């Protein structure tokens, strides 16, 4: 047994409270607020402790910077105060220090507590951060799960850990993806303005699950007073702040924009240098070009792989692999063109950023952030693309495409096998041409235009104009 590892773990266990405080309190002593997922995770653990549920393993995938570590630390702090035995560790740090995996960590922990996990009588809560750094994480967690019923496991990692999961662990674990903050979370954390209970679900149901456009309009109309009541508390300048950086929780604790965008830049460096090599095989020259490729996407999100290959002098297959990995890491959302395999073969994919703050960070460092007014439409498109990804792709409830033809719509949302909704995005007044063109082509159920407009229904075209006040509450 590695004695240095045991001593390190002993120090980590002894300093648990101080480490938790580091992740749950800001530099000025302010307590970080809880995100929506906090309540759900607490329920899983409470049900485990009270033997109400057999769910004993929760895995939280998501890309860096969305608050996974803070979430785990907040939960640990709550249950530490209730005198539960808690182990809170970064697998990434331990691998950097000792080049060990979760199996060795657990063996050392058993030496410290003086008994095997099978023998423990009181519940133990084990929290592992960044598990994807251990190539054997899935099989090891499965093994721990099967050894005892008295241990609750919670693990965070890059979004791609879902793809690395074995069928065995997929059957045993509950996956709760953590995505960048929605506007409601942003307001809750920044201004302590809490969402109206049930309103998000009602808006979502009206927009995406109505039988007809007229039904969607009627349902949205009935929610108008609740929507207006919420917005009466909101400073509308917060929309710009939200789209510029407010999807990242850490941004709300920072003193200025340069600190925020420096942090986003460092976050991208970590994804490129630490996460990408675990998801694909790239040499250092290729990794060195990734940021410049991302900037090219920030400037123009529909770019053919051949053009990028020529521009950066990188093999087209390697460019395709880069995008595949960035999509797996959930840094980018891929929106394929709509059509049959034959018609889309030569059409490029559209790539949006999972957080509009990433696109904005490129504008900031190139001195283009003052063009916010001309670029805010792209930031909103990132936001809505990420929203559709969260609501439909992650839930395996639908597909997202775009119309690659000249004058085609931003999104085609397919729900189930047959329902299709054409969606257009704008921060200004928007005409109907693009939506009409695409609706006629694909025989959609109805069209939605999200824009700065009043709520209205166009009977002739079967399009509902949905104000952004409604969108931001989903």
UniProtKB/TrEMBL annotation:
Top-level taxon of origin: Bacteria
Full protein name: Uncharacterized protein
AAA domain residues: 55-186
Pfam families attached to this UniProt entry: AAA_14, DUF4143
Sequence ranges assigned to domain DUF4143 in this UniProt record: 283-426
SUPFAM superfamilies: P-loop containing nucleoside triphosphate hydrolases (SSF52540), Winged helix' DNA-binding domain (SSF46785)
InterPro entries: AAA_14 (IPR041682), DUF4143 (IPR025420), P-loop_NTPase (IPR027417), WH_DNA-bd_sf (IPR036390)
